[in-house]
Sequence to fold (82 residues):
Amino acid sequence: MNAISVQPVVDMRKVRRAVRSPKGNLVLVLGAIAVIALTTEDASHAIPTVMNAVGAATLADIIIQRIERGIWVFPRRESCPG
Fold:
């Protein structure tokens, strides 16, 4: 029996729309800055720092949404809330 591997299909229209949004532009710019910073910093220190910052921003977004809307809203697609 032969197995056929199926590649996941990415809808490029959604990707283009996300990148053209202000939040998408911000993610691209901050990602580029993080990559540049990793070339000059020790990765064992820089990566946990960036991950902690992303986690703190996500937690802050969850709490703010709870206060404003009165319901728990969790980020689904992006890990960088805007």
Notes: Helices lie at 12-20, 22-40, 43-69. The mean pLDDT is 78. The radius of gyration is 17 Å.
